[in-house]
Amino acid sequence: MSNGRPVRARDLGIPLDGEPGEWNAITDVPGLEVGYTTIVEDSPVVARTGVTAILPRGKGAPSAPCAAGIAVLNGNGELTGRSWIEEAGQFQTPVAITNSHAVGAVHRGIDRWPAEHDPLAAAAWMLPVVGETWDGYLNSINADTVKPEHASAALDAAAGGPIAEGNVGGGTGMNCYGFKGGTGTASRIVRAGSRSWTVGVLLQANFGARSELRVVGRPLGRDSKAPEPAATSGWFEREVEAVGGGAPAGAVPGAGSVIVIVATDAPLLPDQCRALARRVPLGLARTGTTGSHFSGDIFLAFSTANQGGLGSRMGTPTGTTETLEHLSWGGVDPFYGAVVEATEEAVLNALVAATDLVGRDGHASYALPHEEVRAAFAG
Asked: What is the pLDDT of residue 306?
């Protein structure tokens, strides 16, 4: 803890660029709310998992469309609702992130939630946006621990202000760069004269090899003394052999995934949202990743501006028009920079906030040692 609050990357002396928002979190985007359900149980099975939920405009307007765009660095993963976002340039449901085998349960939970909170939306079709990363090293991933009600509970818990990071929500059982990973967030303010906008990032970090990690250019992964049993214990080989799969070469370093959600209150067109999403890999690369074939790296960017626009309702009269405010393409570069900076910091915040965790079959994941980070940036 630092001054009574959880330690974050900046508290360890890491010099990071840009101007953060009040909370340095995705919830700096006005009206946006985040909620978690964290599941840490040892019976009837060992569970280290959960659900992260995002309400782009909060509980007051849970089904108002948001302009949106998606980008993919490596496609070994899932984000539901993607086809509709690519078709219409918008979505109008909550967003959630969970483990790879819980996508269906969380999807159903989001379907159910509007019946109570937005009956008009529930009367139509719902195309929830649900992303995933794999937590099967620490979590009993095939045990169906996550239920639809866990997704509903995360939505009910959603709030603005400062939010937890590390071993929470969908990030509970995740690993990143050979350390304990999980949920991370950060934000940046973009100013133009008397006007300002916020760009916020929330991600679920479960990617990268220990040897790749760079913290503002320093090879802290390669030089770390922290144990890395996921890479050295032979657990993967034993489990594959136990089910008759022969003797594999071993788990691939860097295999995993990262889901990144970018939100802004700047008025953007869907193509501009897609352009923001395409900048996410530049922020990830600052932390060292080269992108594994076995990683699902999927990025969603959306704008909460233009509420009431981008509608898609049956019965809309032919010829109906809309007028949308949007930033000029020639002025979007500062938003690209904000995405890159906030993505980099969100990864580091996930690593710094995470704590050591022991999961199924005694599998352990160790956090990035704070003393190693402080020493690297001392003086």
From this structure: 94
Contact present, 88 and 95 (Cβ < 8 Å): no
Torsion of the alpha carbons at 8, 10, 14 and 15, rounded to the nearest 10: 150
Does residue 164 register a pLDDT over 70?
yes
For 220-278, give the DSSP string.
HHHH--S--HHHHS-HHHHHHHHTT------PPTEEEEEEEEEEE-S---HHHHHHHHH
Phi and psi at 331, nearest 5°, equal -115, 20
Contact 52, 300 (CB under 8 A): no
Instruction: Please provide the DSSP assignment of 171-205 as one string.
Output: GTT-EETTEE-EEEEEEEEEEETTEEEEEEEEEEE
Q: Which is catalytic among the residues 257, 292, 303, 365? A: 257
Alpha helices in the chain (DSSP H): 82-88, 103-112, 114-117, 119-122, 148-156, 220-223, 229-232, 235-242, 270-286, 333-353, 370-377
Amino acid identity for residue 321 in this structure:
T
Active site residue 333: no
Band of pLDDT at residue 121, cut at 50, 70 and 90: confident
Do 138 and 357 meet the contact criterion of CB atoms below 8 Å apart? yes
Q: Would you say the pTM of this structure is higher than 0.85?
A: yes
Q: What is the CA radius of gyration of the chain?
A: 20
Residues 187, 295, 303, 365: which is the catalytic one? 295
Which residue among 28, 297, 303, 365 is the active-site one?
A: 297
| pLDDT tens digits, one per residue of 257-286 | 999 999 999 999 999 999 999 999 999 999
Active site residue 297: yes
Distance of CA 166 to the CA centre of its chain: 11
Residue written as token pair 């939505």: 155
Domains by residue range for the chain, with CATH: 9-309+325-377 (3.60.70.12)
| 28 belongs to the catalytic site | no
